[in-house]
Recover the amino acids of this structure.
């Protein structure tokens, strides 16, 4: 009998994770209340998708999250967009009501080993690449979590011999308890989501939950090149592996003499030249190293790891070449929702850059970004809520143009660009001032660029 059977579960948020958990929980025998701050007319699609569930097991409270929900609540589930300091979450903790979320409930039940990946940057690329390596090995591989589809609805289809690869965000991990992935990676820890977590200490603590509940035979992979990730090594209960672009490590993955190497109980061996990596930028070399070490830890053969490296061309909205027009490359890096991400994108190109930057801030520090833009960028086109603050930060150090919208920014960039230039959407801010998420922003950019003449 499932642990949720007979429980009264309140789920806050009707996005992908919340609706997936609702469907699973009803199937497990729970009585579910789904609550969302949006009214019913904004949720028609989600409501229709759940219309097949029995009405005596599922009810809706829309337009608010009233504290009265807790009067008939055994467990409170928070979707990613609901902060743990929301009044209803604070009151739930005061009453002793446990908190959970879709990713935690999945981890508690997965019959297959989980490779869990978190970090401030590179999560999606690394997760997708490990998934590709799993497919190349012929192993049934499930990829999801913070990307793609929630995997909760597929639990009944999974077998112990499968492989699960999950991207895990700080929002998901901050309420994790009692379980961590058997193979877990922290790629890096740099300032991000400080509007949500308030301090770097709280942000890092949330990331650390991916290691905190591991068992002695589990594997923890950290970047040897990142102080923020290494600072969490004291949480490791299992076996430590490292990855580094700077030099050899005893157990993990590294670059040496232009080759990608693996080391550990099976000895050290070169896999393939770094020139075989199809992704731009030094940061993507680190992502490949992490993926190789994780794949080996999951028992995938070297041949599959190499095949994955050589065939993986990236994922949408991450340094994605949308089009080349009149000798100008248009690059979609909408995933760059922090200045550090934009800095990595700038470092990936030698060509003159016209940078499209802006969006909404997350209480980030922009000093290094401003210095790099002043030195590296041909012109910066600013849009969104961040336009004025970033213009003030840059002062007269870089040629700057304002745009009211992303569409206007694209047209300005095209007018400025010459053959050999790169027009780079790498905003540095979130999309929430104008879009649902970075994916919607990136898709809009793609459409705008495809329509250029």
């Amino acid at each position: 009998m499932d642990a949720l059977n007979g429980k009264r579960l309140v789920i806050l948020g009707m996005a992908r994770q919340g609706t997936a958990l609702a469907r699973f929980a009803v199937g497990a025998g729970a009585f579910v209340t789904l609550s969302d701050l949006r009214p019913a007319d904004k949720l028609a699609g989600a409501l229709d998708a759940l219309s097949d569930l029995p009405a005596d097991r599922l009810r809706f409270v829309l337009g608010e999250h009233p504290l009265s929900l807790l009067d008939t609540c055994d467990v409170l589930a928070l979707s990613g967009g609901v902060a743990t300091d929301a009044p209803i979450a604070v009151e739930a903790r005061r009453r002793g009501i446990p908190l959970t979320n879709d990713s935690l409930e999945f981890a508690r039940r997965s019959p297959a080993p989980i490779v869990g990946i978190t970090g401030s940057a590179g999560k999606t690329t690394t997760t997708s690449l490990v998934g590709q390596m799993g497919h190349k090995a012929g192993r049934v591989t499930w990829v999801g979590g913070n990307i793609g589809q929630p995997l909760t609805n597929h639990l009944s289809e999974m077998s112990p011999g499968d492989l699960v690869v999950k991207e895990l965000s700080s929002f998901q991990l901050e309420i994790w308890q009692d379980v961590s992935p058997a193979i877990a990676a922290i790629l890096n820890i740099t300032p991000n989501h400080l509007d949500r977590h308030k301090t770097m200490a709280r942000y890092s603590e949330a990331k650390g939950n991916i290691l905190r509940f591991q068992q002695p035979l589990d594997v923890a992979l950290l970047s040897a090149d990142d102080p923020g990730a290494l600072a969490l090594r004291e949480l490791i209960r299992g076996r430590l592996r490292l990855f580094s672009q700077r030099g050899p490590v005893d157990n993990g993955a590294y670059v040496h003499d232009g080759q990608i190497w693996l080391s550990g109980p099976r000895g050290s061996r070169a896999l393939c030249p770094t020139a075989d990596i199809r992704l731009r930028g030094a940061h993507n070399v680190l992502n490949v190293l992490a993926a190789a070490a994780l794949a080996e830890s999951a028992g995938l053969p070297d041949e599959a790891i190499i095949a994955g490296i050589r065939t993986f061309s990236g994922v949408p909205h991450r340094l994605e070449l949308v089009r080349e027009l009149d000798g100008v490359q248009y690059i979609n890096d909408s995933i760059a929702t922090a200045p550090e991400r934009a800095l990595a994108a700038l470092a990936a190109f030698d060509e003159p850059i016209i940078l499209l930057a802006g969006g909404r801030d997350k209480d980030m520090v922009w000093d290094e970004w401003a210095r790099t833009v002043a030195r590296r960028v041909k012109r910066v086109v600013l849009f969104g809520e961040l336009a004025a603050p970033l213009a003030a930060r840059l002062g007269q150090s870089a040629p700057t143009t304002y745009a009211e919208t992303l569409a206007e920014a694209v047209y300005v960039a095209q007018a400025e660009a010459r053959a050999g230039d790169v027009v780079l959407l790498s905003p540095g801010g979130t999309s929430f001032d104008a879009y649902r998420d970075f994916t919607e922003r990136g898709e809009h950019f793609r459409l705008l660029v495809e329509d250029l003449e």
Notes: The mean pLDDT is 95. The radius of gyration is 23 Å. The longest strand covers residues 377-383.
